[in-house]
Design a protein that fits this description.
- The chain is α/β, with parallel strands linked by helices.
- The protein has helices at residues 11-18, 28-44, 57-65, 73-82, 94-103, 119-122, 126-134, 149-154, 164-173, 184-194, 213-222, 236-239, 248-257, 272-278, 310-319, 328-343, and strands spanning 3-6, 47-52, 69-71, 87-91, 108-110, 140-144, 157-159, 178-181, 198-201, 227-230, 244-245, 262-266, 283-286.
- It has 3 domains: 10-118 and 305-327, Rossmann fold (3-Layer(aba) Sandwich); 120-204 and 330-343, Rossmann fold, CATH 3.40.50.10800; 208-300, NadA-like (Rossmann fold, 3-Layer(aba) Sandwich), CATH 3.40.50.10800.
- The strands form 3 sheets. A 5-stranded parallel beta sheet has the order 1-9-8-6-7, sandwiched between helices. It has a 4-stranded parallel beta sheet with strand order 3-2-4-5, with helices on both faces. A 4-stranded parallel beta sheet has the order 11-10-12-13, sandwiched between helices.
- α5 (94-103) links the parallel β4 (87-91) and β5.
- α2 runs parallel beside α15 (310-319) and α4 (73-82) packs parallel to α5 (94-103).
- The chain is globular and about 55 Å long.
- 50% of the residues are buried.
- Keywords: 4Fe-4S, Cytoplasm, Iron, Iron-sulfur, Metal-binding, Pyridine nucleotide biosynthesis, Transferase.
- InterPro entries: NadA, NadA_sf.
- Its cofactor is [4Fe-4S] cluster.
- One of its GO terms (biological process) is 'de novo' NAD+ biosynthetic process from L-aspartate.
């Protein structure tokens, strides 16, 4: 099947990432006070906190202990959509807040920071992507959840990594040809799994793009009994090293189901919080990013996720700042593709 590409120059995106200011490290006393304050504010504001697996352990712990939820972007959207709280606080990156607002226009959606971007979202500007789609009007447009509300409004389907292969397989079986965006590695993986005819936008995640296959091979030699877990946003050579390829939820489930005592993990290291909860007796090793050709020593964490700090979270709840808004015309268009993601049943 034909796979074509649309080129992206991501140097500007990497430059932005290098200049992100992370949430400050807090003293034990200040951290404890903020945790108590946030829990109190969540109750007072009739709010619920939903946090992504890649946020800090504090953010994930708070979501769990306050009656909120920690998960991947698909289940975060589902939970927020079904919860009765009048305010949803999304700890993650901006597209996650927008997705919550698309599904819940009647609710207030807040984030610790509106500057928490995603390299995949940034790599897919709506005007350029729309032009690309317009050149191929016969194709069904499927976009990854890591995109803006405007791009979702242009799409026919939105998917997460947990359902992407099944959705593309479903569309391929119906004879549909696909435009896929924005992640080129996930798109390539899906195409190999489904044999679908896909045109690939050439975005990438700055975290997963840095994992190195040679470094993982060397770790395998050092830990021959380790299992390698890889998120499909990673390069093909890294995916080929994997014992398990899957979404964040699939990788987390693997550590409790598999007998291995050691895991080499090629995804954002924020996932270790949940992995250690489920399998505290096992060892988790970050897949290397500092091999030949890498641009940093340790890239296994999204800098924009690191903006989700306790001080910013408390301020957001106190003042209502950092509210997510989506133009209603865009929201209505985006809802169609997002709702297909929510409703999709692979069976």
């Amino acid at each position: 099947m034909t796979t074509q590409a649309y080129r992206i120059d991501d140097q500007a995106i990497r430059s932005l990432a290098n200049n992100v200011v992370a949430a400050p490290v807090l003293s034990t006393e200040k951290r404890s006070n903020l945790v108590a304050e946030v829990k109190k504010l969540i109750l007072e504001k009739n709010a619920v906190l939903v946090a992504h697996y890649y946020t800090s352990s504090d953010m994930q712990m708070l979501a769990e202990e306050s009656g909120g939820y920690v998960s991947d972007s698909l289940d975060m959207a589902r939970f927020g959509n079904s919860h009765s709280a009048s305010t949803i606080v999304v700890a993650g990156v901006k597209f996650m807040g927008e997705t919550a607002k698309i599904l819940n226009p009647e609710k207030t959606v807040l984030m610790p920071s509106l500057d928490a971007e995603c390299s995949l979202d940034l790599s897919c500007p709506v005007d350029a992507f729309s032009d690309f789609c317009d050149q191929h009007p016969e194709r069904t447009v499927v976009v990854y959840a890591n995109t803006s509300a405007q791009v979702k409004a242009r799409a026919d389907w939105v998917v997460t990594s947990s359902i992407a292969v099944n959705v593309i397989k479903h569309l391929h079986q119906r004879g549909e040809k696909i435009i896929w965006g924005p992640d080129r590695y996930l798109g390539d993986y899906i195409q190999k799994q489904t044999n679908a005819d896909m045109l690939l936008w050439q975005g990438s995640c700055i975290v997963h793009d840095e994992f190195k296959a040679k470094g993982i091979a060397r770790l395998r030699q050092k830990y021959p009994d380790a299992a390698v877990l890889v998120h499909p946003e990673s390069p093909r050579e890294v995916i080929m090293q994997a014992d398990v390829v899957g979404s964040t939820t699939a990788l987390i489930n693997a550590v409790s189901k598999m007998d291995n005592k050691t895991f080499i993990v090629a995804t954002d290291n924020g996932i270790f919080y949940k992995m250690r909860q489920l399998a505290g007796n096992k060892r988790f090793i970050e897949a290397p990013t500092n091999g030949i050709g890498a641009t940093c020593n340790s890239c296994a964490h999204c800098p924009w996720m690191e903006m989700n700090g306790l001080e910013a979270l408390a301020e957001t709840l106190k003042t209502g700042c950092n509210e997510i808004t989506v133009d209603e015309k865009i929201r209505i268009k985006a809802l169609r593709s997002v709702q297909r993601m929510i409703d999709f049943n692979p069976s």
